[in-house]
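Good day; I would like, with your permission, to put a structural problem before you. What I wish to show you is a protein chain and, alongside it, a tokenised description of its three-dimensional fold. Here, with my thanks, is the record as I have it:
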Amino acid sequence: MPEGHTIHRLAAAYGERFGGGAPVRARSPQGKFADGAALLDGQPLTAAEAHGKHLFLGFTGVGWVHVHLGLYGKVAFGEGPAPAPVGQVRLRLATAEHWADLRGPARCALVTDAEKRAVIDRLGPDPLRAGEPGQDAERAWPRVTGRRVAIAELLLDQRVIAGAGNIYRAEVLFRRGIDPHRPGGGLTRREWDAIWDDLVALMREGVRAGRIDTVRPEHTPEAMGRPPRQDEHGGEVYVYRRAGAPCHVCTTPVRTAVLAARNLFWCPVCQPR
């Protein structure tokens, strides 16, 4: 499932291509969003926002298209006249200069301002919106302290922090030297603030670079004289999907286990119990 930095990049891409005030053509070649597309057709896109893993495309007087990509959703962008749709396109937006095809989302629905607000209110703070009211470590702290649930599980709970996924949770816990099985209630406030600050920095870099890089300068392939990581997710990481490989810091084999139906990765030496 795409992590929060990907959704923020999508919001920016939609805004750059369709946010100029010109009418946007909207279609649902697949047919599942035909009624919504008919209402959007000919209206200008007035806002494109990301909150955690939720994308909202605003059309004044019509409402918001609420998109959650889920496991299989993807967006393809193109320039010039839109070609004949290929595959199951849920929503196509197009102008004379640009087009965008949304395929396979878990959710694509037209919602009101109140319904959009209800979705956002259920989410924890988004590190990529840090600096906005309520988007900070303080708001999330009560949802962590006193909990007997493992911190690795809490970091995937979008009601605690919005936007962090499996890669960011594994990497930030490694970088802070925290055992992923430690209960949330076992963290100090200082440790929690450090996790939040690290997520803010790492996810902002993810937006900038378009990939997840979490290793410090001294652990890059160039600094260590090692081959670059070969993985479909790209990016240089410490533990994610490196089970059995030597830790970049201490050379101990990286461990893996299933926690809350997701694969977890950690170094037992750098993240002691």
Remarks:
- The radius of gyration is 20 Å.
- The CA atoms of residues 8 and 196 lie 18 Å apart.
